[in-house]
């Protein structure tokens, strides 16, 4: 029987850097997202090249005023059209919407002492609009959009001062939006520091003399984010009575290719590393193997005397995570067929369907992930990103018949229900992205996720008008019946 708990928070998720646009108005400063390029000549499955940013890229982007190849500068114009979009979310019956705050709307350079009031006014009205629509805001403080000034002048999160800048920013957010926002997240996919260091922590790896020095710097930056997250959690609880703070990680479930113990060990190793980021924020301490790794590599990760106590004392209230695909590890990986994806390149799983962007679609893996996370941490879980990028076709009659999207969500929802039936406490589900927006990795519009179609192409051409896809009414029914309609399908 398919049953979701009463009060289950159905909804969707977007990020400011991918949907807002308006990158240079009302006092907003440049962020790392504003230098992200659309690269039409790079294979969409080439994960590393799509994400890579060099100092030359940054310098060129800072001089560029045209947004043609910088799609995140225009997004889907959510900055001006959020009321229209929220009305559509309300029509779908959303209980919650995950959004992020662009740090550079409040602090254009990141190191100012006073915030930009126009930025505060914008988000206050956004959250009030959500409240009027009976939609609970879930707000991410930092979602791949740190101030570019802090990258250029402070080496990003490697610099300890950035902790203080972030804490000041978080405090302003809590004080400004305490009446509208109860649920918060600190850093989006904090584990992505090694997948795309520039986007996550503002680190340009080419600045370091070798790979090892860059890795040490990334760990240093990560430690600073852990400390900042804990301090923000403390402030959130103090400033907003009854508020809840969550961490946000990528759940990268890895299977062994065979029952060969060596394959099993490689998969365990990957899963252990993935758990490290959650361990620190939920359990409050670094796992021993990380200290061992630092010692073995000769890394000197600088910590202030109270850092570990702060991390231990101020842990998160719930765990939120993204889930898109599972991975496979093998001792014979070099001889195996590979697939790309939104995480990295890995061994192909012959039992799974692969999307046109190289994702291995694995609904059962979501159930496994939910059970593993709940058994390990005994904390409430919240799936805040899950979805499939596809090329939608607008029919002659103006409809978008996205049955493939419906099938994807149906299969994943059923697995969530099975995990809940096994005792997992799941707070809610927000699909990524509930309205078409600029893709994080490829900076494309034609990689579409939404229940709502946005008339714009990869180069920014189009009316930007919104249209309902077939999946719109389907998801509306799922929410209205709290998932019970899935039993009929």
UniProtKB/TrEMBL annotation:
Q: What is one GO cellular-component annotation here? A: cytosol
List the Pfam families.
Answer: Glyco_hydro_1
Query: Is Hydrolase included in the keywords of this UniProt record?
Result: yes
UniProt xrefs under InterPro entries? GH, GH_1_N_CS, Glyco_hydro_1
Which keywords accompany this UniProt record? Glycosidase, Hydrolase
| Superkingdom classification of source | Bacteria
The GO terms this record gives for MF are: beta-glucosidase activity
Q: Answer whether the UniProt record assigns the keyword Endoplasmic reticulum to this protein.
A: no
One of this protein's GO BP terms?
carbohydrate catabolic process
Q: What family, per the record? A: Belongs to the glycosyl hydrolase 1 family.
Q: What is this protein called?
A: 6-phospho-beta-glucosidase
Organism field = Anaerorhabdus furcosa
């Amino acid at each position: 029987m398919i049953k979701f708990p009463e009060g289950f928070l159905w909804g969707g998720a977007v990020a400011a850097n991918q949907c807002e646009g308006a990158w240079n108005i009302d006092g907003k400063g440049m962020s790392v997202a504003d230098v992200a390029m659309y690269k039409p000549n790079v294979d969409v499955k080439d994960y590393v090249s799509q994400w890579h940013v060099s100092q030359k890229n940054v310098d060129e982007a800072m001089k560029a005023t045209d947004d043609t190849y910088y799609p995140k500068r225009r997004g889907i114009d959510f900055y001006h059209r959020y009321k229209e979009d929220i009305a559509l979310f309300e029509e779908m019956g959303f209980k919650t919407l995950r959004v992020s705050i662009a740090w550079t709307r409040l602090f254009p350079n990141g190191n100012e002492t006073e915030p930009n009031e126009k930025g505060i006014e914008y988000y206050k009205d956004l959250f009030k609009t959500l409240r009027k629509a009976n939609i609970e805001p879930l707000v991410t403080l930092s979602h791949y959009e740190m101030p570019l000034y802090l990258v250029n002048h402070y080496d990003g999160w490697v610099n300890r001062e950035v902790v203080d800048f972030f804490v000041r920013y978080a405090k302003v957010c809590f004080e400004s939006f305490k009446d509208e926002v109860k649920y918060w997240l600190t850093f989006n996919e904090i584990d992505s520091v090694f997948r795309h260091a520039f986007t996550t922590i503002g680190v340009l790896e080419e600045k370091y003399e070798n790979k090892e020095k860059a890795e040490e710097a990334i760990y240093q930056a990560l430690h600073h984010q852990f400390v900042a997250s804990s301090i923000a959690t403390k402030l959130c609880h103090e400033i907003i009575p009854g508020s809840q703070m969550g961490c946000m990680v990528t759940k990268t479930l890895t299977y062994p290719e065979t029952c060969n113990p060596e394959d099993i060990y490689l998969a365990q190793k990957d899963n252990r590393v993935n758990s490290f980021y959650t361990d620190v924020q939920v359990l409050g301490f670094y796992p021993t193997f990380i200290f061992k790794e630092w010692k073995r590599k000769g890394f000197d990760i600088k910590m202030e005397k109270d850092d570990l106590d702060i991390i231990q004392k101020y842990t998160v209230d719930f765990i939120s995570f993204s889930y898109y695909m599972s991975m496979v590890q093998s001792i014979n990986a070099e001889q195996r067929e590979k697939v790309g994806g939104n995480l990295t390149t890995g061994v192909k799983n012959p039992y799974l369907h692969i999307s046109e962007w190289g994702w291995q679609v694995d609904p059962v893996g979501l159930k496994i992930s939910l059970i593993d996370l709940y058994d390990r941490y005994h904390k409430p879980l919240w799936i805040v990103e899950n979805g499939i990028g596809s090329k939608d076709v607008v029919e002659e009659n103006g409809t978008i018949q996205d049955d493939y999207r419906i099938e994807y969500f149906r299969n994943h929802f059923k697995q969530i229900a099975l995990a809940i039936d096994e005792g997992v406490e799941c707070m809610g589900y927000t699909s990524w992205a509930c309205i078409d927006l600029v893709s994080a990795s490829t900076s494309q519009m034609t990689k579409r996720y939404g229940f709502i179609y946005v008339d714009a192409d990869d180069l920014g051409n189009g009316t930007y008008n919104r249209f309902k896809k077939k999946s719109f009414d389907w998801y509306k029914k799922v929410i209205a019946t709290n998932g019970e309609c899935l039993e009929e399908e």
